[in-house]
Design goal:
Radius of gyration: 17 Å
Largest sheet: 3 strands, mixed
CATH class of the largest domain: Mainly Alpha
CATH architecture of the largest domain: Orthogonal Bundle
Oligomer: single chain
CATH superfamily of the largest domain: Winged helix-like DNA-binding domain superfamily/Winged helix DNA-binding domain
Helix content: 25-40%
Number of strands: 5
CATH topology of the largest domain: Arc Repressor Mutant, subunit A
Number of helices: 4
Strand content: 15-25%
Distance between the termini: 46 Å
């Protein structure tokens, strides 16, 4: 997972993603990156994110009707996601904690990536449902 071109914009976007435990959208990333690069446009942030996704440095988390969220792929630290259907929060779960037998794959198929998401409600949203 190395970047093809290591520009200042890419460095700033990666730094913003590495420093947050959340899974932000491009607008949030743009706000953070503007602290270091005040003249960077939102369009440049989107193009940079697209390049980082192509390079395998960043992955997308997409939800119908919502802004695409971005996740920095920590080298060697595979993880999956837990998504709250109430508030939309996205949490990481270590891939090592998930047991997944790869059965039923077509013969000769070579798995290159696995994305697993658990959907449900977080503790706060579940408590709100009980009160409501």
């Amino acid at each position: 997972m190395t970047m093809v071109r290591n520009t200042r914009q890419r460095q700033a976007v990666v730094l913003a993603l590495r420093e947050t435990p959340t899974h932000p959208d491009a607008a949030w990333i743009h706000t953070q990156v503007r602290r270091a690069l005040p003249n960077i446009s939102l369009g440049t942030v989107y193009r940079t994110l697209d390049a980082l996704v192509r390079d395998g440095v960043v992955m997308t988390i997409e939800r119908a009707g919502q802004a695409t969220r971005y996740d920095y792929k920590h080298a060697g630290l595979g993880h999956h996601h837990v998504v709250c259907r109430g508030c939309g929060a996205i949490y990481d779960i270590d891939a090592e904690d998930v047991q997944m037998p790869a059965t039923g794959l077509p013969e000769g198929f070579q798995v290159q990536d696995v994305r697993l998401e658990y959907h449900g409600v977080c503790e706060d949203c579940a408590a709100g449902e009980k009160r409501g």
